[in-house]
Amino acid sequence: MRPFLYRCMVTVEASRAFMCHVRRYLVIPVLLLLATACSAQPVPQAEPPSPSPSSSPDPEVTLPVGYIGGSEASEPPSAGPAALRGAGWSLRTDQTQTGPFLRTVHPVVDLRTGEQTVGNYLIGYAMMRAPQGQELIVAPLGKPDDLPGAPVTIRAGDRQQKITKLTQPVLVLTVPSGAPATLTVEDGRPQTLDLRTGRRVPRADTALFYDPPAQEKTDGPQIGIPGATGLFLSASAELVPGLESVGYADPGKAWLAVTVEAGGAECDLKLGGSSFRFESGGRSYPATGSYRLDMSLAAGSLSIGAIEVAIEVPEKVRAGTLVFALSGTRTGGDCGTGRLTTVPARATMRLKLS
Fold it and tell me: For residue 161, what are the CA distances in angstroms to 64, 155, 321, 326, 350?
């Protein structure tokens, strides 16, 4: 009896130990499953703080003596004759503001350091006071794309400052009360703008910019290209001291800027400078550079292309003969590819500038 009871007790203890062992290994997977489920839930992220306005200059300041600043234009000056005009640029001034207390509608930066001085985009305006004994001048100069790439010199009273590149289309200056204030573009033929009046200071060697002798579009000759429809040429011209493509003419000379338009077959022509020249007073003046005349289909069967030809001539010239002697290559279209030949080889038209 005792051995039987002993065996039963051993069996019960063994069963109890087995169940504990099983429970231990069941709890571990359950805990792992719970941990995995918890980790799969998105962890709440802290909301980033709302951006606070960046620190910026006060909306109203007294500018320092001899300040030279610039601002973005709120509205470009109205269209009209340029106050200053150069080779590839023009400044169109609007009404200049002068006084001891003025505002602009955009922030003002120091043109010498590039640092913002007054105003910000949150308040949308900048109120400025002139220092004692001085006054403010705010002068709009046109659109940003019109600003000259050349350095400018700003003079106010007995001070002057050269700015390598003008980047803001509105000038903001403090100047001695009543003192003259000017801006000079230093690009080979310096031109000066009076910043108080918005008017240019006349200069003889740039006068052609403001009253250029010109000839309106005039029909020219018909020139045939063997194997293709002929070219019907026309031209217009004006005489100016400088062009964006070639800069300024030499002293005593000017550029005869001739716009040559051709119509006819669809052609792509590469023309040498000897294709055009101007004859006047027994002398011949060749065009500079080379030209690509791309005549693309415009309407129906007519193709049109235009180029601006630059010919350096004496600045006093007013009449002469434009000579067409087209030479170069045919590079595509109905005119084919190869050396360019024309019939006739030479044609002319009369130019009279007034």
Answer: 15, 7, 47, 50, 48
